[in-house]
């Protein structure tokens, strides 16, 4: 998305001029205002995409201006980034409650200003695309396929739509955990409220970098709605404590303030959670609450009979949203796909469909599919190319590591199945994996 229109509101002339110069060089259309009155005139003359708004000004403070923008429904079209040299966590919380996109402390970091503006523009672009997609066709959010596993998942979603307890979704990378979480939200009585998705990495980062106000902003957006936390097993203890309070008491503690929030929590895991509890890295009481209703998503190789329906879905998606030419997979081509192991699960299938639609035309033959799968395999194998600069033992270790990592990806981290396919005793396999530094649940 091209840089848009910016309005900089600050009573300090040097700050206004510096920011104007920086963003003009970045290609933005920049307007400035020295006080609240000028700001109102500016946004009513030409509504900006992004407004940098100082909290403390001589005539009207930034929080009051933000309230006016909220009342005039302008925040649907403008991302407001608050700035303050005397900010407190209470001020930041109030700003985010009123709809501010972000809160920056002075002295301002020039790099952070640019990054924050870019993120705001990307958020605007995504919102625009979402609105356009919703207008084009009804959203398909339920699990796709006629297999017993997919029918069971749809029945589970229907049952859980009547409740608000936390849910734990487990499955391999790319198997559709995020998609299932959105389906749970869309079928629940919270469907008209927001669904907010946070990775454990982001959750931890907010706390490690003392960005509690940004975390609170995310949680407030999910109030009355749904919070999806990906890679739940990687949450820090501090993040686990917040999530526990949110689930058990419907509130979070920030500084001296207790904030009440009604949020349904959906946790996503690759299946390592019980092991983390055993190793004392994850709170057992939080795990017990989450696993009251666990949902296991099967790997694609376990329901390949659904591939024809999945192909139709992905083809229609790219034809509708990306204007790609419609192509049909021949029966022999579909048979090859049904016999493939799919280490990357649904995501790998989706990528295959997109690439084949872009690069070819006419009916999709079995030869074309074989060619794509071969190229994809070769690209993955390049990282394991022979390096004659190392001694024979190291070269053998690298080859062995690449072989076992690939097997683990294909089996979804199942050590028993990997041992069976490799012909290695399970105890010896565990020892080899440890020596080679390979995590069975997350082979690289």
From TrEMBL:
Q: Which UniProt keywords apply?
A: ATP-binding, Nucleotide-binding, Phosphoprotein, Transcription, Transcription regulation, Two-component regulatory system
**Family matches, as InterPro entries:** AAA_lid_NorR, CheY-like_superfamily, Homeodomain-like_sf, HTH_Fis, P-loop_NTPase, Sig_transdc_resp-reg_receiver, Sigma_54_int, Sigma_54_int_dom_ATP-bd_1
Q: Which residues form the Sigma-54 factor interaction domain?
A: 143-358
Q: Please name one Pfam family that this protein belongs to.
A: Response_reg
Q: Which CDD domains match?
A: AAA (cd00009), REC_NtrX-like (cd17550)
Q: Which residues form the signal peptide?
A: none
Q: What is a single molecular function from GO for this protein?
A: sequence-specific DNA binding
Q: Share an example GO biological-process annotation for this protein.
A: phosphorelay signal transduction system
Which residues are modified to 4-aspartylphosphate? 54
Look up the domain of life of the source.
Bacteria
Residues forming the Response regulatory domain are 5-121
Name the PANTHER family for this protein.
TRANSCRIPTIONAL REGULATOR (NTRC FAMILY) (PTHR32071:SF17), TRANSCRIPTIONAL REGULATORY PROTEIN (PTHR32071)
Q: What is this protein called?
A: Sigma-54-dependent Fis family transcriptional regulator
What is the source species?
Thiomicrorhabdus xiamenensis
């Amino acid at each position: 998305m091209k840089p848009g229109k910016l309005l900089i509101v600050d009573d300090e002339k040097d700050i206004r001029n510096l920011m104007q110069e920086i963003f003009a060089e970045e290609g933005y259309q920049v307007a400035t205002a020295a006080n609240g009155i000028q700001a109102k005139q500016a946004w009513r003359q030409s509504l900006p995409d992004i407004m940098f708004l100082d909290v403390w000004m001589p005539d009207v403070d930034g929080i009051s201006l933000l309230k006016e923008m909220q009342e005039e429904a302008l925040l649907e079209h403008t991302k407001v980034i608050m700035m303050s040299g005397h900010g407190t966590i209470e001020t930041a919380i109030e700003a985010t409650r009123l709809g501010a996109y972000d809160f920056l402390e002075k002295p301002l970091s020039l790099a952070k200003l640019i990054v924050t503006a870019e993120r705001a523009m990307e958020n605007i672009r995504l919102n625009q695309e979402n609105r356009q997609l919703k207008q084009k066709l009804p959203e398909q959010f339920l699990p796709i396929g006629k297999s017993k596993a997919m029918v069971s998942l749809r029945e589970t979603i229907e049952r859980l739509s009547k409740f608000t307890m936390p849910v734990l979704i487990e499955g391999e990378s790319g198997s559709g955990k995020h998609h299932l979480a959105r389906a749970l939200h869309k079928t629940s009585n919270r469907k008209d409220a927001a669904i907010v998705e946070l990775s454990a990495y982001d959750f931890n980062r907010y706390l490690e970098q003392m960005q509690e106000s940004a975390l609170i902003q995310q949680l407030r957006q999910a109030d009355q709605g749904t919070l999806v936390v990906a890679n739940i097993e990687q949450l820090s203890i501090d993040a686990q404590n917040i999530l526990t309070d949110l689930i058990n008491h419907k509130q979070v503690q920030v500084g001296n303030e207790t904030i009440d929030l009604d949020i349904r929590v959906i946790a996503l895991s690759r299946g390592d959670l019980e092991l983390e509890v055993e190793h004392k890295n994850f709170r057992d009481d939080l795990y017990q609450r989450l696993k009251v209703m666990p949902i296991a998503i099967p790997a694609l190789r376990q329901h390949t009979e659904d591939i024809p329906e999945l192909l139709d879905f992905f083809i229609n998606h790219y034809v509708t949203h990306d204007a790609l030419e419609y192509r049909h997979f021949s029966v022999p081509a579909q048979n090859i796909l049904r016999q493939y192991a799919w280490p990357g699960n649904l995501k790998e299938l989706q990528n295959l469909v997109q690439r084949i639609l872009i690069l070819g035309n006419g009916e999709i033959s079995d030869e074309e599919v074989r060619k794509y799968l071969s190229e994809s395999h070769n690209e993955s194998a390049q990282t394991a190319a022979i390096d004659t600069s190392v001694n024979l033992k190291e070269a053998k270790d690298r080859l062995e590591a690449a072989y076992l990592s690939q097997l683990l990806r294909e089996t979804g981290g199942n050590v028993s199945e990997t041992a069976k396919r490799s012909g290695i005793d399970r105890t010896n396999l565990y020892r080899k994996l440890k020596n080679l530094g390979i995590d069975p649940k997350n082979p690289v």
